[in-house]
Amino acid sequence: MKIGVVGTGYVGLVTGTCFAETGNDVICVDNNPKKLDALRNGVLPIYEPGLKNIFDRSVREGRLNFTDNLKEAVDKSDIIFLCLPTPPGANGQADLQFVLNVAGEIGKIITSYKVIVNKSTVPVGTADKVRDRILENTSVEFDVVSNPEFLREGVAVEDFMKPERVVVGTRSDRAAKLMHQLYEPFVRSGNPIIIMDERSSELTKYAANAFLATKITFMNEIANVCELVGADVDNVRRGIGTDSRIGKRFLFPGIGYGGSCFPKDVQALDFTSDEYGYNFQILKSVMNVNESQKVSIIPKVKNHFGGDLKGKNIGIWGLSFKPETDDVREAPSLYVVDELLKAGANVSAYDPEAIETFKEAFGVERSASIRFVKSSKDAIKDVDALVICTEWNEFRRPDFIEMKSLMASPVIFDGRNLFDLERIEESGFTYHSVGRRSVNA
């Protein structure tokens, strides 16, 4: 099939590359000349495991191309995916200006039937707005479809190539048939393509992410209770995770969720609920708890040092919001590092992939006060304590004897519960985690 993808951000690049991998002819559109030049030269703007291999193959075989000419992409495509940013405003409302502007331009240049697909996460009713904006400029027949993405950063290629389900929102039999044909190679194992109306499809994405964010936040609250009553959150997690009604995923406590999806999707669903006069109390609590959870490790650090962090050397392991990505949007590390600097600490930070994106998000001027290093060992040299913000695999099995020799003081504040308590106790560290007892050297 002939596919157009407007926007080469995280969703657009993964979408276009994966469609090309299955034999479709894909043309990606972007208005950033530097990004287009980089893509044409094989340089990806994001880190995502497995993406580079299939990207290079699809470009080499001519199935994946890039342009800044929207008309060229629309003319050559049967289905056009809108993979554009929908950033949250100050009140949590999703900003649709990029989506609607492109929709208006498509209306001016469309000459034959096309399927226009909202792939971006958009509020309920956006398909209607896109349809109306296109109709302002054309009388040519077209359909607007909602097709939300369910990609997890770090495993996005696998998620796209082997989806648990594909949700397609359309009331057009013609559009539904084309979308089914497009996605059929991805669901050969029998996973469903679920056809529904556009508004239900739009809400499905928000509902899924809001539920998962709620599940994480609930477990973080349980972890906080565990610390107060002397219970072990790992035992509680295993005890409830084996209940088939609950399941074992998204039950790992930590210092809050971040990233591009959960924060903005929870905010957007709450905003939509307010718009319709409904007070979504659970979501408001989820947002409030998550904000406080991001810095919940700071009081532990301060208490250990008698309330004074001035001049203390603190190492940071992990800056991305989760492992296997360079994404730091709403990452807990941003808040943890900020609080440490405000308290007068000296910070040395390491992440396998996210140092540059962290600098950009944190601000060049403020980042100058942080010592960014090239290895986990460099991050702990002569530090008074280590703070773990991201659960990268390379952090899970360290040489504790070597760590003690490098650190000025064997103290760890683990925001991701990476280490077994008995093992860490035998290693002679003072260790504070989330929802478990503290270990004192």
Strand order of the largest sheet: 3-2-1-4-5-6
Strand content: 5-15%
Which value, in Å, is the CA radius of gyration?
A: 24 Å
> Low-confidence segments, ≥5 residues, pLDDT <50?
none
The assigned structural class equals: alpha/beta
Sheet with the most strands, sense and barrel status: 6 strands, parallel
Question: What is the end-to-end distance?
Answer: 63 Å
Helical amount: 40-55%
Q: What secondary-structure arrangement, pairings included, does this model have?
A:
Blueprint: E1 2-6, H1 10-21, E2 25-29, H2 33-40, H3 51-60, E3 64-67, H4 70-76, E4 79-82, H5 97-109, E5 114-118, H6 126-135, E6 142-146, H7 156-161, E7 166-169, H8 173-183, E8 193-196, H9 198-229, H10 233-241, H11 262-275, H12 281-294, H13 297-304, E9 313-317, H14 332-342, E10 346-350, H15 355-362, H16 364-367, E11 370-372, H17 376-380, E12 385-388, H18 400-406, E13 411-414, H19 421-426, E14 430-432
Parallel strand pairs: 1-2, 1-4, 2-3, 4-5, 5-6, 7-8, 9-10, 9-12, 10-11, 12-13, 13-14
Helix pairs in contact: 1-3, 5-6, 9-11, 9-12, 11-12
